[in-house]
Amino acid sequence: MKKQTQSPENPKTCKEAGDMFTQACITSIHLTGEVDRKALEDMETNYWNIPDSRERYKSLVKGYHSIRLALMASGNTIEARLLKDKESRAKLKYYWNFGPRPVALWSWLTGPEGLKHFLLLWSSMVFLIFPLVYSAGDLLRSSSGPLSPWDYVYFSICTATTLVYGDIMPCGLGKFIAVTEGVFSYFGLGLLFWILMEKFEH
Q1: pTM for this entry
Q2: What's the pLDDT score for residue 11?
Q3: Which one of 30, 39, 162, 179 is most buried, counting C-beta atoms within 10 A?
Q4: Which stretches within the chain are classed as H helix?
């Protein structure tokens, strides 16, 4: 995205110019199968100069989406992937500032850096958050005696991966938390496969 420091005198003119360059990109794709780089940069510049940030990101998302669909229709999947990354970043900024937090989180997890974000979230939950909860609430029992910090991490990993050996068991509220971690991990596994499919589909 290309951002200028000066604001245009007429925001409406800037929006209309951005729309014009979006259409120029689509026309170029219909004729050559490729994006006109200059028109794309001009589209980004004009949309970035829209003072209202809601309208700015909304216009960027719409512009990128329209151009990406044209690229996909022309069979140019390489440039379509690049435009999808730009669209995802603009969409994340839009949702993070103006949309519901769950939608913003979903955009954060499924965007261009989604795999890295997912691994960060999953690892922190399984290796840190859940073990701390089990330990703080004294929610686990073992027939072999007192539990060490590693035992809480071990139980969390076993629960998340469904490799339950039975040597450590949850008790009381721990049963509900263990089920919650299991459901979280099932959802996370599905999300991981979805992210990988999206990343390597082309």
Answers
A1: 0.61
A2: 66
A3: 39
A4: 11-32, 37-48, 53-74, 77-98, 101-110, 114-124, 130-136, 149-160, 173-200
